[in-house]
Amino acid sequence: MTTNHELFQRAQQLMPGGVNSPVRAFKSVGGEPFFTARADGPYLWDVEGKRYIDYVGSWGPMIVGHNHPHVREAVERAVKNGLSYGTPCPAEVTMAETITRLIPSIDMVRMVNSGTEATMSAIRVARGATGRNLIVKFEGCYHGHGDSFLVKAGSGALTFGVPTSPGVPKANADLTLTLTYNDLDAATRLFDEHGHDIAGLIIEPVAGNMNCIPPKDGYLQGLRELCTRHGALLIFDEVMTGFRVALGGAQAYYGVTPDLTTFGKIIGGGMPVGAYGGRRDLMQQVAPSGPIYQAGTLSGNPVAMAAGLAMLELIQAPGFYDQLAARTRLLTDGLQAVADGEGVAFSTNRVGGMFGLFFTREKVDSYAQAIAADTAMFNRFFHGMLERGVYLAPSAFEAGFVSSAHSEQDIADTLEAARGALRAARAG
Ligand code: PMP
């Protein structure tokens, strides 16, 4: 039998850190990653046959659980007709119709292949449409690995202590202004000073890459008003929150309308997909109807579209999001009760099917609080959970995800594991 360890030894000789995306390497939590052999429902199985209840869900997209038969069968049907055409295909039109119907702020959409491409393209549109150069982002927010975004970034960039990456030219980084998330006064001051040069402000409407931090009441609305007043575009990066916190994404959940929206992973049902879209007058400036160039050989891929459409059908079932939110609440309330019972300083955040766990007594609503929480305790807890067959994101700075496949029994099993893991973590 191939072991996780053997695979990791080989992988490290061949790929940077042994992985194709940094956080997977377990570097911040220590130890070695497991290698997944298969996934079904809420579970992953590693190559050694160990089962994990999975709260990462491929970093979000597996909202109906892994290997859902409806999605898998749609892919199987699509594959029979070929893998890529490089011409328009009918599923793209259905996908665009579905997205524009579910997200009223989107009149037109362009499919791409990842969240990174979606955000890079969205800020190009913001710059092209406004004729301005500055982009505003938030410390601890992650928008993929485009040059403009690796400035005080979240996710792996934050986990590994290189939030501003070498390789990003200073001239490029200088065009990205950063703000503190959930601080409207700071945003007002920045816009008062630079508003006339700001092309767009990009934000994760619920921050999910510095752990999970929801916006304060009125915060997103305040940013909307600032952008409107200063002629800058408001871009919601809903790569994580889209079709996750509500069917209409965070913009529906909080009732705030962005000019442009980016999506990723989740609309591909697990296939490599992203999209950006928004107001018609903006999107019509994208090539070939307008001069702002953006393209993709595999964009609108028929197999990815089939998977995404099948997934989007499932999440439109009545009550889907109420049930998802209820399951998530069962998990976070349950974990809080277990931690309280064990006398561990702990708090949680939760929006729809997305959650965050913090080793601190405070309710966390800022980046500063998120990084001040006890990460050593998190790392011990992470490993305790892993040993007990529960897979959380391998970093204290990532959100967690519940799927509709997680049963009440899975949650109960998770809480039981948490009791043991917290005891062990507390003991050090
Ligand atoms: N934006 C957000 C909010 C994300 O969470 C991510 C990835 N986790 C991205 C953009 C980048 O997406 P991708 O990894 O598909 O390039």
UniProtKB/TrEMBL annotation:
Annotated positions of the N6-(pyridoxal phosphate)lysine modification: 265
EC category name: isomerase
Key words, A-Z: Aminotransferase, Cytoplasm, Isomerase, Porphyrin biosynthesis, Pyridoxal phosphate, Transferase
Cofactor(s) demanded: pyridoxal 5'-phosphate
A GO CC term attached to the entry: cytoplasm
EC number: 5.4.3.8
Catalysed reactions, as listed in the record: (S)-4-amino-5-oxopentanoate = 5-aminolevulinate
GO biological process terms, semicolon-separated: protoporphyrinogen IX biosynthetic process
Subcellular compartments: Cytoplasm
Keyword Methyltransferase: no
Pathways involved: Porphyrin-containing compound metabolism; protoporphyrin-IX biosynthesis; 5-aminolevulinate from L-glutamyl-tRNA(Glu): step 2/2
Any Pfam family matching the protein: Aminotran_3
Family of this protein: Belongs to the class-III pyridoxal-phosphate-dependent aminotransferase family. HemL subfamily.
Known partners and oligomeric status: Homodimer.
HAMAP family in the record: HemL_aminotrans_3
Protein's name in the database: Glutamate-1-semialdehyde 2,1-aminomutase
Organism the protein comes from: Dyella japonica A8
Lineage: Bacteria, Pseudomonadati, Pseudomonadota, Gammaproteobacteria, Lysobacterales
Gene: hemL
